[in-house]
Each structure stands twice: as C-alpha cells, then as structure tokens.
Amino acid sequence: MTSLLREITHNYIWIGIILFAVLFTYCENSISYYNYVNVLLFVTYSIILWCTLGKNKEYYSYGRLFLTVFLYSIVVVGIYLEMSCYYTGDTYYWDYTDPYLYSYIDRNMVDKDIPLYEQVDYIASTYDWGPSDWGASISQTLFLRLIPSRYFLFFAQTVIGTVGALLMFSTCKKFMQIEHAYMAALSYAIASFNIYYYASFRKEIFMVFIVIASFWSFYQYLERKSKVYFALSILIAITMTFFRPAVMVLMLAGISSYYIGKKINKNNARPILFLLFIVLSLFFSILYGILSSFSETLANSENYVDTSVFGVAVSAIGVMIGPFPQLLILDSIKMSQLPLYGTGLLFKFFLFLAFWNGFASCMKEKEEKVFPLYFFTLLEMLALAVWNDGLELRKAMPHISTFYMAAFWFISKYDERAAKEEKMPGLFPLPNIKPSIIMFGTTLFIFLSSFVWNTMR
C-alpha cells in the first residue's frame, strides 16, 4: 500500500517535471542559464528525496543527515553565488536593500575594530536602527571577525542550517516515525529557499535557528523533565527580540498553548480550543502589526503589495497554503532571486493538505504535545494574513520549519494508522470521499495555481 509520504513525494516530482516542461516554452533564450540551474536544483532535490524513502531504520541517522544536508547545501550555495556574480557582478541577487546594508555595516564594524560590547551603541547611533536589526549585524560580525570574508560567513550560515536540521530531526523523532522525522528535517533543510538564505546577507537563517532551537529545548524539557531545558527554551525565544520582536511573542504563545491544552477537559476540548484560538489570533495579529511597525515594513517590502480585495485575498491564500512558487524567469526584464526559492516552495505546497488535516486532528483528539507547533505556526500565518504580508517569503521564514514538523506529524500518524487498518483513512474536509480523489484534486489545484502564478506575474 502506498503511504501518504510516498504519494506526496511522487506527486511533487511528476507535477514538477510537467510544470518545468510547460513553463520552459514561455522562457526567453537569453536567460536559459538561470533557468537550467533551477531545473538542475529540482532534479537533484527530487532524487535525494526519492532515494531516501523506504529505507531501514538504521539508515536514518544523524551522521547521514549531517553529511547530506551540508554537502548538498555547500555545493548549491556555490552555484547560487556563481550565478549571482554572473548576472549582477556581486553576491546580492538583485536585492540591494537589507543584504547590501548589512554587508556595508558589518564591514565598517570589522574594519574599525569596534568591540562587541560597543556594537549596539554604534548601530543605534550611526544608523538609527532599532533592536530588530541589532541581532543580524552582531551575529554576522562574530563570524567576519574570525575570517573577514563574506564567503566564510556563507559557509558558517550553512553550518548553522545543518545543525538546525539535526535539532529538527531530534525534535521530530519524539512524536513521529523515524523515516518521517528524517524526511521532515531533510526536505526542509535542503529546500532551495533555505539554501538561498545560507548564501545571503540576511538575518533569516539566524531567526530560523532560534525557532528550531527553542522548540527543541522545549521538547527536551517535556521528555527529560529538566527545568534547565525549559529555561533555555525561553531564553532562546527571547533572543528573537533582536531579530523580529513580534515572532518572539508568538513563540512564547505557542509554548504556552501546551499548558493551556493540558488544563482543558478532552470532552470539551474542541469548542474551547477553537474559541481560544480565535481570540488569541485576533490579539496576536494586532500585536504583531504593532511590533512589526507595519507601515515601515510595507514601504520596504521586497514584493509589490496589492491592497485591493483580490490582492488581499491572494495574500491570505498564499499564507495558508503557500507562498506560491515561482519556478522560472520567463522574461529577462523581471530578473530576480524569486525562482531560487521555487523548487523548495513547490514541495511545501504539497504539504498544506497534511498541515490542515493535522490541525483538525490535534484539535479533535487534544494532542497537546503538538499544540506549540500548530499554535505558533497558525498565529504567525494569521498575523501575516491580517497585515497583508502573505506573499513575502522572508516574513514567513520563522514558521516554515514548524509548518514542516506539524505537517509531517500528521503524515506519520496517517501512515501508521493506514498500515494498521490496511486502508487509507479519510481526509479532512471530505472524510467520506476516497483519499485518492482528494489527493488528485489537491495535486490538480497545485498544478493549475502554480502555472497561473508563474505565467501571470
């Protein structure tokens, strides 16, 4: 019997092949090099995922995960950097906003040999930056002081991403089968959008690591009952203040949801949890907007923000099931880094059905162990939807790792149940319809929406 994990991976590969083949007919020949690189990334990513399925338990080890993620990532980082230099003459990928500023400020602090304890004052007084930008510059200069080369920084960020994959694997093993835990960490860590951030002057990789490390510490606390891990989880979450304060608040809210779930009687869980989720969503959406200084982020967004009813609706849908993947550059006038995210985002697209089924399942059965993952993810998703930030990947990066963990938790649970019952259980929201029909409809929707998104932009 085909597992849900295998079916998702299989559908991703076939739909990806069809999309790339169709979209290539729309491309200009002058940018074929860029697009061939994206095809290569899709092929190698697909091969790695497919070859990882169905192995024995001994195969899914920390050592194999480390080597696979690190070696693949470091090669792709080199390809990204070479391509950026080929087209733009530098390593900023057509983006001269935050990456350029961070690079400039980091070089200044290293060249002037400003001590670590004076960096915050220097950044705040010289560039008038608030706390949400202190973390990026301080983190980056720590590495640049060791070896003053941007390439060493990109190498260090790749190592951080690889360590994050190991922590993610360790966390997932606590509540899912080992194959699913390994695939969750692998598919996320080598996704193209992650590797782009390994090779750029941005703060997202540090933010993602903070999220993964904080939840890893919390689940260590639940397993070992050591208050040291709980304190560590909270302290790590608080460091998010120096990257994106609003996300720190949502992380603490996610952790708190575990204790709220424990206090609720299982018989009354669904209505109470649903009401609680709505109230928390409204509160934290408003708080997110205040802490994020929405008017400023809107003005500096890397994407065009459409405030029409249609634009807001697309943004909201993009939050709930996307972001939508742009796979190729069809017109040389529209050169950007966006297709470098595409192959990874397409796989994430295939996980949305599992994620929302998982949310329905954990609410129904009061699975409080995964409440932190779902509540943190959903609170940030809804905050982004309310503030019309749903199409900007960098805003979504903090919760994508927990999205993967939550989705794979359901996939593992579903496959385990299917194996016991020797049939595929029903899927939300149509439990009486054959799962194969729902999967076919979902796959068709992903293909059509991805095609329209790529050809209409």
What does this structure look like?
It is built from 20 helices and no strands. The chain is mostly helical. The chain has one domain. Helix 15 packs antiparallel against helix 18 and helix 18 crosses helix 19. The longest helix is centred in the last third of the chain and has 29 residues. The chain is globular and about 65 Å long. About 3% of the residues have low confidence.
Summarize the structure in short.
The protein is mainly alpha-helical and 457 residues long. The chain has helices at 4-24, 32-52, 62-88, 98-111, 116-127, 134-146, 150-172, 178-189, 192-198, 204-224, 227-238, 245-263, 269-291, 294-299, 309-321, 342-349, 352-365, 371-386, 393-421, 435-456. It has 20 helices and no strands.
Count up the domains: 1
Query: How many β-strands, per DSSP?
Result: 0
Question: Helix fraction?
Answer: over 70%
Q: Largest sheet, if any?
A: none
Distance between the termini: 40 Å
